[in-house]
């Protein structure tokens, strides 16, 4: 049985962006495709009030920008990136190449090849989002990506120095101060000054997300991401103040960010609601957090933790925090989430900013079918085949002929027939008058 202690004022919005967003994004993409840098410059001036001879930062500019920052800021960036790098390297080690002999002389294998060129987008808006540089650019470089083009918009008409430092220290090969749909389109189609890439990664506003959606297929993308989400599962051992602070910490991402508590204890639920309201009173980011809590915040009372975990899986939230007596039980009980945070000792903010796991995660129920951004996203796992035993090729040829003809693919069947005849002496009547099978040789390698 479930009881709503706090219901959201608004139902979840339509997943499809408004028609005006789709139309405007399509218009900008086509303009950039047709007019290249001229279009990028026009939209940068229009939307960001930003123009300069080249949007790409030179090596000297980057050096000057990085050196302008306090040493503590640089030290912190280095420390955080060390954590992200370490986790990405552990992920990379888990990707195994192999080659196996599956039947006599038949060798099948897989290789992991980094994508050649990746574009990373680090959003700006009101605040510099350094962590997005760590999660995208650094992870791509750990994967072995040869060329990473990083774009970020100006903030209030200024180059965001800390973001540039994070991009540079993460290993970006080029840094361009350009944002919005024009940046995504330029990286996807290529312009005179911004090279075309093969995959684009990084979060952004509704226009950036729609640009990635429209360009998907022409380039790869990391994943479709929506408003940040947090869900907390709590039992009677949880601390209401910790719950409240952590709900607010994610609500401040934006006015459409859901913050949800599922609890087995009514007193804890009601106290958490009271504390959230108190925290919001003088929170500097209340313009975002307060409407997020009012419109999308929920507190749900359930009978037991089994029901709590089932309900949490139905939400399939981006971030799920487990504040229970035995938090690791969630590892077995749950399967639909972007990332789990086990116990009150950790929090989503650690995942967002410092701990090392990737914070680019699925939202709006996408956790039912995908995980988040990881080093493997920047790697293509490809296969290869080799046959060294002629009799095995002949047997496979006969099987291929039969299997293909069931599907009425005669060309495929004849490709198999040829090898069955060449290496096993099978009949090849359809080749009569076309070519001499005996002239093909037996295929023995020199």
Automatic annotation (TrEMBL):
GO molecular function: histidinol dehydrogenase activity
Pathway in which this enzyme or protein is active: Amino-acid biosynthesis; L-histidine biosynthesis; L-histidine from 5-phospho-alpha-D-ribose 1-diphosphate: step 9/9
Cross-referenced PROSITE patterns: HISOL_DEHYDROGENASE
Pfam families on file: Histidinol_dh (PF00815)
Region of interest (Disordered), ranges: 1-21
Cofactor(s) recorded in Swiss-Prot or TrEMBL: Zn(2+)
SUPFAM superfamilies named among the record's database cross-references: ALDH-like
Keyword line: Amino-acid biosynthesis, Histidine biosynthesis, Metal-binding, NAD, Oxidoreductase, Zinc
InterPro entries, per database record: Ald_DH/histidinol_DH (IPR016161), Histidinol_DH_CS (IPR001692), Histidinol_DH_monofunct (IPR022695), Hstdl_DH (IPR012131)
Domain of life of the source: Bacteria
NCBIfam families xrefs: hisD (TIGR00069)
Family note: Belongs to the histidinol dehydrogenase family.
Protein name as annotated: Histidinol dehydrogenase
Species whose genome carries this gene: Streptomyces yanii
Gene from which the chain derives: hisD
